[in-house]
Amino acid sequence: MDSLPDFDDPSFQLKSQAVFVFSREREKEYAGRFIKDATQLAMIHDVIDNAYDLADGETTVDAASVCIENALLQGGGGVWEQAGSWLVKLSSKHSILDPIWSTLATNPKSTIRFRAAAHVVDMSPDARATILPILLSDRSRKVRSKVVGDLWVASCPDAAAALKARLPDEQDKEIASQIEEAIVKCCG
To answer: Of 36, 37, 59, which is closest to residue 49 (Cα–Cα)?
Structure first.
């Protein structure tokens, strides 16, 4: 039987301390700078707790997934952005979380689909490969424009094929022009 670690030993480190730069409480303090509503603040605090608990083996991927997805779907400004950033961080270790991006990208509400678009450049290449065709063909001009604009700013070479595939079907001339520019930038 494994013995418990010596928590008083200065060399002891929780897994979360090895994964994340700041402490749980420091992250919550930082989150509070952007969110003043108590309900919304509690929602992002739950995301932070689930992220740290997942890293420390104190919760399951499924439980963390439910919490993060809820914050992305129901959270107001400041919450959904931070929840998306936590999803990006956690997905690097737990790719099983990537389907949350598909849930957002296929939501009936364009405001929710926009939330996936806002994180497309930070997603893993595998998640981006799945999500890009969905978002680039979105019926909302705002969603398509967000994806293409962000890909132009933060060049993602793996996105070039999806951009090239979308270009012939893009009816909006301004977005088509942005796609051409993003392709050049991505192929760089």
So the answer is: 59
Co-location of 80 and 128 in the same domain? no
pLDDT for res 155: 79
DSSP 53: H
- Answer yes or no: is pLDDT of 49 > 90: yes
Query: Based on the structure, what is the number of domains in the chain?
Result: 2
> Does the residue 171 lie in any domain?
yes
Write down the pTM of the prediction. Answer: 0.87
Report how far apart, in Å, the C-alpha atoms of 119 and of each of 64, 103, 113 are.
18, 14, 11
- 4 domain-assigned: no
User: 91 exposed, middle or buried (CB, 10 Å; 0-12, 13-18, 19+)?
Assistant: buried
Over residues 143-159, the pLDDT tens digits come to 999 999 999 998 799 99
Bigger pLDDT: 142 vs 4:
142
Structural domain harbouring 173: 113-188
